[in-house]
Amino acid sequence: MPLVEHLRELRSRLFKALIFVALGAIVTFIWYDNGLLEFLKTPYCALPGEMRFPSDRCELIFLDPAGGLLLRLKVALIGGIILSAPFWLYQLWAFITPGLHTNERRWSSAFVASSSVLFMLGTLCAWLTLNAGLKILLTLAGDGVTSALTAPDYISFVAMVIFAFGVSFEVPLLVVMLNLVGILKYESLKKSRRWLYFLTFVFAALITPTQDPFSMLMMAIPMSLLFEGAIQFARINDKRRARREESFSDLDDDEPSPLNMTPGSAEAPSPVEDPSPVEPPKAVD
After folding, report:
1. Contact 203, 168 (CB under 8 A)
2. Residue range 51-87, pLDDT digits in tens
């Protein structure tokens, strides 16, 4: 396809992805009054009372008249992106698949399902680390200081942690897909395994917004396990590919492959009857 067609395809895929995000945002906007905000406040409310202001209640504040509307819109947008993850991930993969071979496109469903599960797994790990991360960050101010968090800042912090974990858990899946299309081999992964784990911990230390050891480990350890699973998948897939190509590896370029060229049995064709036979020409006097 020419460049203009690629840009049109990208525009179409982005438009469809935004439609799904908008639908998810509408659902989240309606869900806001049915306990969603209280659910998002759970990590903050689980902190000891002396770390919050006021200490006897768990409340977030906003400092401008439009803060309530902006807060609700922000929560709706975050929820829309999370709820519509399988759909916009499919649009991403559908934009890539035209450049792949037919046998490589069959992994589309597996990619969408796996990426959605990994994204949700990342958000779950992020949720489990929020309380510990908040506690570490708020205690760094020292004694005699109490936090009074604004609602937009707190929601932005929660969204940053969730997206950091969700996106990072997609990286091992990228390794699997590169191996499936033959770009990344098991031998390369095997040689760089130690560096891969080391860079995983460095990546987790840099991308976690809380910058605390607990959150870093909660991201790095599952990512390392997922990377090991991707490496083992590459090992099995490369062995399967090698067995399939083993019988043809010793042949020269001009040597025919050892295929069975014996013709199969076939029925003889039945004679075709002419429905209107041609009469012989008459003799001319």
Report:
1. yes
2. 777 767 788 888 878 778 888 888 888 888 888 888 8
Which 8-state DSSP code applies to residue 34?
A: G
Q: Are 151 and 78 in contact (CB under 8 A)?
A: no
The CA-to-CA distance between both ends of the chain, in Å, stands at 72
Helix residue ranges, H only, the chain:
3-31, 36-40, 42-45, 67-83, 85-96, 102-105, 108-139, 151-168, 171-180, 186-191, 193-207, 213-245
Instruction: Name the amino acid, one letter, at 93.
Output: W
Distance in angstroms (rounded) separating the CA atoms of residues 217 and 133: 12
How crowded is the C-beta side of 259, counted as CA atoms within 13 Å?
5
Look at residues 179, 194, 173, 195 and name the one whose alpha carbon lies nearest to residue 239: 179
What CA–CA distance (Å, rounded) separates 155 from 162? 11
pTM, entire model: 0.69
Q: How confident is the model at residue 106 (pLDDT cuts 50, 70, 90)?
A: low
- How many whole angstroms separate alpha carbon 156 and alpha carbon 147? 16
Q: How far is CA 100 from the centre of its chain?
A: 18
**DSSP, res 248:** G
Q: What is the per-residue pLDDT for 22? A: 92
Q: Which amino acid is at 12?
A: S
Cβ count near 159 (within 10 Å): 20
Q: What does the alpha-carbon distance between residue 164 and residue 126 come to, in Å, rounded to a whole number?
A: 8
273 pLDDT band, cuts 50/70/90, is: low
Residue 223 DSSP SS3: helix
Judge contact between 21 and 84, C-beta under 8 A: yes
Integer CA distances (angstroms), 175 to 53, 168, 196, in order = 46, 12, 11
Nearest-angstrom CA–CA distance, 186 and 117: 24
